[in-house]
Structures are given as structure tokens and as C-alpha cells.
Amino acid sequence: GQIVPYSQRQRGDLIFWGSGPGSFYHVGIYLGDGTMIAAPTEGDVVKIQSVWGSPWGQVARPSA
Questions:
Q1: 44 neighbors 28 (Cβ within 8 angstroms)
Q2: Which residues lie closer than 8 Å to 12 by C-beta, 6 or more apart?
Q3: pTM to 2 decimal places
Q4: Which of the listed residues 2, 15, 51, 59 has the most CB atoms within 10 Å of its CB?
């Protein structure tokens, strides 16, 4: 995959929270329109929710 700026995020990109690689504490899969798939807390079920807080400034775009 590749790393791209958060401002260029697309559906399917991985969004991270934390200060950078090695310190991420949360990840979600971007769905578009400000929503993502994520498990809000450890042990919780996976949900569709709004992107919250201040994600890291880049996203990971998986390759096929």
C-alpha cells in the first residue's frame, strides 16, 4: 500500500489515531462522508460511526 495525506483520504483507507507509527492507539476504515468502521473500545462490537477527534495527518491506502 501507500501513505497519503489525510486530506486525500478515500473509501477503504485506514485512519489512525496517535502521534505516529509505533504509537497508534486506534484505527478505523474510512467509508466516506465522514464515517468509518471501527470498534469504539476494546471488547465492543464493530460499528459504523463518525470520524472523531484528530486523526493522524496521513492515512494508509491498502493495495490490491
A1: no
A2: 29, 30, 61, 62
A3: 0.89
A4: 59
Other C-beta atoms lying within 10 Å of the C-beta of residue 13: 23
Rounded to a whole number of angstroms, the CA Rg of the chain reads: 11
Phi first, then psi, for residue 8 (nearest 5°) are: -105, 20
Side-chain-side CA neighbours of 27 within 13 Å: the count stands at: 13
Strand partners, 29: 14, 37
pLDDT tens digit string along 36-61?
999 988 888 999 999 999 999 999 99
Q: 38: Cβ–Cβ under 8 A, 6 or more apart, which residues?
A: 26, 27, 28, 29, 46, 47, 49
